[in-house]
Amino acid sequence: MKVSDRPVIFFRNDDVRERLDYTLISLTELFLKQQIPLAHAVEPANITPEVVNWLKSLKTDYPRLIDIVQHGYNHNAENPGIKMEFGGSRNYADQYNDILKGKDLMYEYFSEHWSPVFTFPYGTYNSGSLRALSDCGFKILSSKIKFTMKARLKNFLGRSLGKDFIFGKSVNYHPGVRSNYNFSEISVSVNLIRKYTGYETADHYNLQEILYQIEAARKHTSIIGILMHHRFHGNHLDMIQELLTHLRNTGYSFVSFSELMY
Ligand SMILES: [Zn+2]
Fold first, then answer.
1. pLDDT value at residue 180
2. What's phi and psi for 185, nearest 5 deg?
3. Beta partners for 11?
4. Nearest to 118 by CA among 19, 12, 199
5. Dihedral of the alpha carbons of 58, 35, 44, 19, in degrees to the nearest 10
6. How far apart are CA 64 and CA 69, in angstroms?
7. Ligand 1 centre and the CA of 63: distance in Å?
8. Residue 2 confidence (pLDDT) above 60
9. Name one GO biological process term (predicted).
10. pLDDT at 1
11. How many angstroms does the Cα of residue 80 sit away from the middle of ligand 1?
12. 252 CB-near residues (< 8 Å, 6+ apart)
């Protein structure tokens, strides 16, 4: 897609795990009220029946607005200090097993009502992770992309050479098909959080700063992804509501991963 195309925005909410709490419910309600699609990225090994049932009934009631996608396997939950689940020195077979176990759980919980979209916890991966994802039949990888001059040069070079990594950095193919694999990359480029300060606390960007990130991304892509983590946003729901209203009033349209699958 060319940057001259009408810009569209998608929202991805990571770390849907064991708790059905105020932040998860209230954030979702904001999106439903404004009829804006939201993708919930589920940790298959950590989600509880309570959250599964809530998501299933949401998907039944709002099939176009709610996407359910896979966020790793267990988010390396047993080692919270190590900010990595996939990548590093993990080999293909080991990662394939975890991705497949997660996928099997997703089918068990949601049958056909989830989308074959994968997001890596902490955004870390290696070539073995990508091969495993492709072999498990995922259609979209959603990671992160920056549009700084340095990042654009790295991505341009890496894509031209068909590489997964260049200068030790991952090459982002957003928004397009990854060389050598059977999936596309549709990545997020806007974050609400400046800095994570605790399990549920984080410094947030203000509305102007978030709009600035969106405008900066708009110069380089017509598919702008905004990343959320509901558990941090309990005190920022008013700002998120303002953001959604502002984006709607300024002519952006909103899409789900399902609509971006090609
Ligand atoms: Zn995560």
1. 87
2. -115, 125
3. 226
4. 12
5. -70
6. 14
7. 24
8. no
9. carbohydrate metabolic process
10. 45
11. 11
12. 7, 8, 9
Q: For the chain, what is the mean pLDDT?
A: 95
Give 4's pLDDT tier (boundaries 50, 70, 90): low
CA–centroid distance, residue 49 to ligand 1 (Å):
19
Contact between residue 207 and residue 246 where contact means Cβ atoms under 8 Å apart: yes
Check if the beta carbon of residue 37 is closer than 8 Å to that of residue 67. yes
Ligand 1 centroid to Cα of residue 71, in Å, is: 7
pTM above 0.90, yes or no: yes
Rounded distance from Cα 143 to ligand 1 centre (Å): 11
pLDDT tens digits, 129-162? 999 999 999 999 999 999 999 999 999 999 999 9
Mean pLDDT on 13-24: 96
Rounded to an integer, the average pLDDT of 47-63 is 98
CA of 231 from ligand 1 middle (Å) equals: 11
- Tell how far the Cα of 122 is from the centroid of ligand 1, in angstroms: 6
**DSSP codes joined into one string, 25-41:** HHHHHHHHHTT--EEEE
CATH number among 3.10.450, 3.30.1360, 1.10.1660, 3.20.20, domain 8-65+140-260: 3.20.20
Average pLDDT over residues 27-51: 98
Helix (H/G/I), strand (E/B), else coil: 53? helix
How far apart are the CA of 7 and the centre of ligand 1, in A? 26
The stretch 10-21 carries a mean pLDDT of: 96
